[in-house]
Structures are given as C-alpha cells and as structure tokens.
Amino acid sequence: MSMPMITLDNVTVTYNRHPAVHHVSGCFEPGSLTAIAGSNGAGKSTLLKAMMGELSSVEGTIDRGDLLVRDFGYLPQAADIDRHFPLSVADTVMLGAWREVGAFGGATRAVVDRARQALVAVGLAGFEKRDIGSLSVGQFQRVLFARLLLQDAKVIILDEPFTAIDARTTHDLLAIIRRWHQEARTVIAVLHDFDQVRAYFPQTLLLARKVIGWGPTEEVLTKENLLHAKAMTEDWDDQAGVCEAPVLEGS
Ligand SMILES: Nc1ncnc2c1ncn2[C@@H]1O[C@H](COP(=O)(O)OP(=O)(O)OP(=O)(O)O)[C@@H](O)[C@H]1O
C-alpha cells in the first residue's frame, strides 16, 4: 500500500490564541479527491492555509512527506485575490510557470505553448491580451484554473472555487478537476454544495472546528453528521482557549 501523502496529526490552529480548528488528524492519500465541507466559520480555509504553511500558530504535525512547496498548487478564496493589477490574461497564466521560468528568465516556446493549451482547456482561447480586470468573475476563475494547469502541481488545493460562479463555468471547471483526478493528482477542495460533493468527490472531510467525519463521502455526509456539524459550529465560542492537554490515567 502506498504511504499517505499528507498526514495531519492533532493539528490545532489558533488566531490570537483562540483555536479556529483543533485536534485534526487524518490523511489525504496520494491521488485522492477530497471535498472539505462545513458551515461558515468551520475552519476550512484556516486548515488549507495551515497545510500551505501560511500560518504560524499551528500545533501538531502536518507531514507533507516528500512533497516540496512547488508540488502544491493553491487557489485561495476569490475574496483574497487582488485582480486590480494591470496584468494580461497571458501573463497571469504564465505565473503558473514562474518556478520553471524564473524571475527574469524568458519563457521557452514549450512553456508558451503549454500556457496557450491551458487557455484552450478552460475555454478562453483568444483572451490572451485581455486585462484581467476586464474579465467576468467566471472568466477570471477560468484564468486561475489555466494557471494551475500550467503549474502542473502534484497536489491541488482549491478554496471555494465555485462561489459566485455560474453553472456552465462550474461544470467546465469540475471537468478539469476530474481530469486532475484521472491524472492521479491529489485534489482537495472546499465546497458548500453537498450535491456537488456527492456527485464528484469520493472523499469528504466534514469539519466543524474539529473533524466530524473523514472518509468516503456517502459515509461522511449523513444526516446525523450534518446536524452534528451544524450544531458544533453554531455552539462554538470564538473566545474559547486552547484545550488543556488531556490528563492521562495514572499520571
Ligand atoms: N486572520 C484571522 N484572524 C482572526 N480570526 C480569524 C482569521 N481568519 C479566520 N479567523 C476565524 O477563524 C474561524 C474559522 O475561519 P475560516 O475562514 O477558516 O472558516 P471557513 O470554514 O473557511 O468559513 P467560510 O465558509 O465562511 O469561508 C472563524 O471564526 C474566523 O472568524
């Protein structure tokens, strides 16, 4: 059996000493396609940011195995992305290849061809010279998927990729996620639409500050678990302190 690719062991993440997620343990297998689901404030984005190494107050262990930073492709929530830069669609997609190209290096013909193919794959052929500020929300999301295609990452982490995205665009981008899965990449996506999760994502991590369920989607998204998750998130005290270490019997 292959070794787990990303293993979380008792991960707790705090903001100003208040836990946003706590005691999360489990693993993302290589090539798995996992949805992270949960209510607003359940800690989904926090967990992704911790996995990306973006947060400093992380307790427990996030073991990324042999993976390097370059092996991760990360799409943050749209609200965290500033697109008021005077960047063209082509330049934005090319950012996916910056590790290959380097800060001042020139892109090879092969990289430019791959960027062009990525734009075709997301249905934006001919948009190369458009300013990203002039795109619709859905078109911009397609550009960001093209950038991920170019990056060619082993692990792809998407934070609410379909929020405010229309059905047609969502359908097209889900097809790309499916393609990544068929290519045996590990894909992790925060999603709010349970029907979508059931239809496309074999694995689910249901989060409500802690893990409510993590495994095959049909076993995790039960009515009971969803009610439990909702109640947990609603009852959570944002000012709660970090749990004390459990007292071991006999100590
Ligand atoms: N930078 C921050 N500073 C302080 N608290 C934060 C910060 N970011 C998130 N939080 C808090 O951590 C908790 C979890 O937030 P997080 O954004 O991870 O939830 P989420 O499940 O992704 O929610 P949503 O579905 O609304 O995006 C919330 O109570 C939030 O207010």
Structural class, please? Answer: alpha/beta
Integer average pLDDT: 89
CATH architecture of the domain at 1-67 and 155-163 and 186-241: 3-Layer(aba) Sandwich
> Strand content of the residues, in percent?
15-25%
* Principal-axes shape call: globular
CATH structural fold name of the domain at 1-67 and 155-163 and 186-241: Rossmann fold
What is the count of β-strands? 9
Characterize the biggest β-sheet.
6 strands, mixed
Number of helices: 9
Helix-strand pattern: EEEHEEHHHHEHEHEEHH
- What share of the residues lie within helices? 25-40%
What's the CATH class label of the domain at 1-67 and 155-163 and 186-241? Alpha Beta
Give the CA-CA distance, first to last residue. 37 Å
The CATH superfamily of the domain at 1-67 and 155-163 and 186-241 is known as: P-loop containing nucleotide triphosphate hydrolases
Distinct small molecules: adenosine-5'-triphosphate
Spans of at least 5 consecutive residues with low confidence: 246-251
Oligomerization state: single chain
CA radius of gyration is 19 Å
